[in-house]
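User: Hey, quick favor. My workstation is busy. Could you predict this chain's structure for me?
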Amino acid sequence: MEHDSEQLSSGTADWLPADFDGSPIAAFAIDLAHTVVRWNKACESMTGMAADKIVGTGNHWQPYYVQPQKVLADFVMLDRPADVAEAFAGFRFRSVPLVPGAYEVEDFFPHLGESGRWIAFSAAPLRDGQGRIVGAVQTMHDITETRLAEESLHAAQVRVERFAGKRSEMLAQASGHAGNQQGDSATSLEKGMSAETIRASNDMPATADTAAVPVQGGLSSKTDASTTPALSAFFDGSPVPAFAIDANHVVTHWNQACERTIGVAASRMIGTRNQWAPFYPKERPVLADLIVSGAVEEMVESYYHGKFRRSPIIPGAFEAEDFFPNMGESGRWLFFSAAPLRDASGRVIGAIETLQDVTKRKLAERDLHKVQVDLEHLVAKRTAQLAQANRTLEDDIRRREEAEAELLRRNAELTDLNKKLSMAQEQLMQSEKLASIGQLAAGVAHEINNPIGYIFSNFGALEQYLSGLLEMLEAYEEVEHLIDDEATLARLKSLRERVEFDYLKGDLPYLMEESREGLIRVRKIVQDLKDFSRVDSHLQWQWADVHQGIDSTLNIVNNEIKYKADVIKEYGVLPEIECLPSQINQVVMNMVVNAAQAIGEERGRIVIRTGSDGSHVWIEFEDNGCGMTKETMSRIFDPFYTTKPVGKGTGLGLSLSYGIVQKHQGHIDVRSEVGRGSTFRVVLPVRHAAA
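Assistant: No problem, here it is.
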């Protein structure tokens, strides 16, 4: 039977992987009705909007827009690429190479953060096993730093080109002053000589305006007194990693941000042609080199293999992305932007290149692809399950038409049997879990017990050694005044003050006593773990001390209750009983934890009483918590029934406790009053009667 796609989309949230909420990538998912089904923690952090305010609504546009409008995930789910392109025309819009049917868009949101944020969205459709779209997932990545880097690059290009224009004027002035040697000076400039050299050859004094004119129209690291500090301050003060090269491909600037990001000092780079070295194992041109050489159009594809594009902001600039496995612990993805630097006549005199670490964004794309694949596998699995359920339902309907009355009777029997089976299965799973926990606890206790033993032994010896050592030091101290050598006395006094000898003598006994108390506490916890687990019993009925089991269990769950309630013990005289000790300990733990969870914000009280009437013993747990209504009391032992918030309880604690007590041929009595608290009394026979 063909399943309804609307019915399929309603379970989208169940198909998402378990680590969706814990992913460091901000993400949300919507179903076919454009309703948000998941809004993870990272998304809450980026947008400032809690999941419980968004999930179940169609308000996923609110963190980004003032008026309701479709976001990228809404368009992607329509599976109409032309509509997506039209809706986001004018934005940085492209398809995601790794994910079929997915797109990326960049946009600026002025109301996010203090000064607004640039956000990159990636959205992909979710499909079932037959390829039908059943929802969409969208991730968000903050690219504000990347955009700031591009703007910084553009500003740097404008600034340096202005500087180049000023240098051209200086060259013209230098040429004008050369007089009769004008031709020789021009020839010298073309050969790489500075204006200062020309003036020296003509016996003309160098002035402040011409003392450091750049070579061959290239970008020099020296300029006039007003330009040099400004340009250097601009480069070094910029938070964006950047470097510049001249027309000869020589590095002229390598700012502090570049030093921090790449890990190479400017002193090693400036004046060299080694700008490739931090990035590649062999010499090859970087993006700035291609721009300076004028061969960027012809050569960029051979070096960047489709991972480049023209800058939409800066004329003549290019952008590229590449992965560098030798950078960082696991390699890095870097985003490059390189732009030409021109003089007043428009000639390229150098290039500036900025860097941006985009590893997080690339990981987000990879995670998006992984999420899509995982989700589609889950959808296919759920589709098959739904198809199987539909076939089963058709068979049931056909059989019901043939013999409706008989099927109703059998259905009632099967329902009752299924309920008992589910309860038995849950109890079995819990028993196996308890057995595993018991084995683990006993193993840990055994492993800890051995080192604790020899620590105790060594600790006693250490106390004796320290006592003897202190006694010896006191003897030395008594004859110290007999030393005649002043230098020795002064050195001993200095040493005593440096190690605070008098303080150590008084403090060491206290330290040893506190350490002994700590070791005793550790030994007590280990023993309680062994008593609580009772792994060596192998679920054999045996005689056990109920009070000892209660005390061991309280020590185990102490962290759960010590901040919420005071535990008051009112023990009576009890005989040992024949039981399964680990299961009785489990009942005690469930009762105490439930009592602690029933207590509100103010500190409460839990009273544990015991008593015996000869053939039976009873354990009573009384709390002053919120209490229960009669309706709640009638259902507290039902499997999976809980009054706790979603995710805070399974509803199996009291149900399993009830089953354990019944297995011991006992019973549980309950008294409760809303606002006053509850009392649970567990009654157990002293001797187990075999069934």
